[in-house]
Amino acid sequence: MIQRLYDWTLSLAQHPRALWALAFIAFIESSVFPIPPDILMIPMIIARPNRAFVIAGVALVASVLGGMLGYAIGAFAFDTIGEPILASLGKADAMAEFSERFNDMGFWAVLAAGVTPFPYKVITIMSGWTGMPLATFVTTSILARGLRFFIVAALLWKFGAPIRDFIEKRLPLMFTLAVALLIAGFAAVRYL
């Protein structure tokens, strides 16, 4: 099923209304859909590099708005909608323990999920469920998703199709390492 969703999402890049399709995918990916918008963004930017930053901007706005839907699911419908979504992603067992520590590291959790391969939808739902301040959630989401989408757009705009393999296979690892180093640096400053 995931492969069919992936293929369907990828096919939308050729659609005449691909930008609207990207907005839709970015929106629903932030709360329920398993395929990230990057899958659609990459071929769209390769096909039209002069629109790279418009495409990234659409993905950013739609993703943050979708994140707010995920936040609302967590805040107002966790038992009926949020918990089944997280359970389907294999996160049910860790939810109770994670919720206790979540708001203490809320900024970092949203930042990490926004730029790394960790499912952003998990963090959007958890943010609402644990009562993270909405302003913190939205601000961090804009920062994280903006970094992710605009770095991808800039790399594709500058280097074109040859950088695609790096973006798809290695950029998520680079984002993960960067966030880990940033958190480690702040922890070192705090405790030294």
UniProtKB/TrEMBL annotation:
Listed Pfam families: VTT_dom (PF09335)
Keywords: Membrane, Transmembrane, Transmembrane helix
Domain VTT per the UniProt entry, residue ranges: 53-155
Transmembrane regions: 20-40, 52-78, 105-123, 135-159, 171-189
Cellular component aspect of the GO annotation: plasma membrane
Keyword Ribosomal protein attached: no
This protein's name: DedA family protein
Organism of provenance: Sulfitobacter aestuariivivens
